[in-house]
Amino acid sequence: FSNQHLLIRFKLMLLIPPMCFVTFLFYLIFCNSSFSSLSSLRVRTFPKDSALLGRDTVRALMYYALKVWSDIAPLNFHEVAGSDADIQIDFTKADHDDGYPFDGPGGTVAHAFFPGERFTAGDTHFDDDEAWTFRSPDSHGMDLFAVAVHEFGHAIGLVHTSAMESIMRPYYQGPVGDPLKYDLPYEDKVRVWQLYGTREYLSPVLARDAPDRCTSHFDAVAQIRGEAFFFKGKYFWRLTRERHLVSLRPAQIHRFWRGLPPNLDSVDAVYERPGDHKIVFFKGLKYWVFKDNNVEEGYPRPISDFGLPSDGVDAAFVWLHNDKTYFFKDNQYWRYDDHLRRMDLGYPKDSTLWKGLPTHLDDAMRWSDGE
């Protein structure tokens, strides 16, 4: 996108139990910028008719809604009292002098401006005609924390998505639970990491011993959620579907996939399991299973669960032609059925059956075009 501002207008339908449809309009101002690593906020006005939400509660909810994003990205927000805050937060009604008037109860509930040079960049407005609530049943009003997390997603540069579990779906989805325990869906984490990176791998301290991606061979490669991951030592790089590096600096593996040992020095193989799309890591005689970036209970486990050799694996990938997982070790390979959780009969076989395969295989993966 250019630096010209683009107005995006969304008209959406929300089903409110039991059988009532309400039309929502969201207005955003877009430009191709992002916030710096330090941003200030100010709650300038508060809900006028809410007996449930005092000023301290509103300020706390705004803080925790922003903290959801700053906990996983190199963003830092602090509240200020003056008029120079990066994010000005207002509860207002009807025409409020930003060119995008609210329309009363049950219409536009809030809007936010994308980061950029515009004087309203980052500002977030809530319709004071709505019945704002907190910790109320789904059918009672609009949960302020849930809406704030969504709108602040826009304020830091995220657009709507159709992903089912995303907080950035383009309509109100109801309360999301305790602000102190709320964890962003994986889809939203990935999208904000693509804009800002993670806190860990943007730190120069963590990158001192990082390998050079241009001169290194890789320990493992994998396609996960349509993106290519390249592993070397205790680091990895990520390539988007458009084949762009998310960051020139690598991330630490154990900081991204929490549950791997902190002293992990490398991985042998990684693949995304067909069917449930969980991510499997192999190192030595152990393996771990992750749902998104959280390890499942009961891991690590021995690779003998797969019927694999006692000296580990060199490579693993899923072949879309049959939805089977192939493991390689030295000059042999195995074919595993992840749906049935068992090794196919007749394996291992000689890896020379794969024409053009090198003698010593570091890893293998399926590319985004299926090859």
UniProtKB/TrEMBL annotation:
Hemopexin repeats lie at residues 215-260, 264-309, 310-357. Ca(2+) 2 binds at residues 86, 123. The modification Phosphotyrosine is found at residue 299. The active site is at residue 151. Its cofactor is Ca(2+); Zn(2+). Ca(2+) 3 binds at residues 103-104, 127, 130. It comes from the Eukaryota. Ca(2+) 5 binds at residue 316. The keyword Cytoplasm does not apply. One of its GO terms (biological process) is collagen catabolic process. The chain crosses the membrane at residues 12-30. Zn(2+) 1 binds at residues 96, 98, 111, 125. PROSITE patterns: HEMOPEXIN_2. Zn(2+) 2 binds at residues 150, 154, 160, 168. Ca(2+) 4 binds at residues 219, 268, 362. The keyword Transmembrane helix applies. Residues 42-198 form the Peptidase metallopeptidase domain. GO terms for cellular component: extracellular matrix; extracellular space. PANTHER family: MATRIX METALLOPROTEINASE (PTHR10201), MATRIX METALLOPROTEINASE-17 (PTHR10201:SF330). This is Matrix metalloproteinase-17-like. The lineage of its organism: Eukaryota, Metazoa, Chordata, Craniata, Vertebrata.
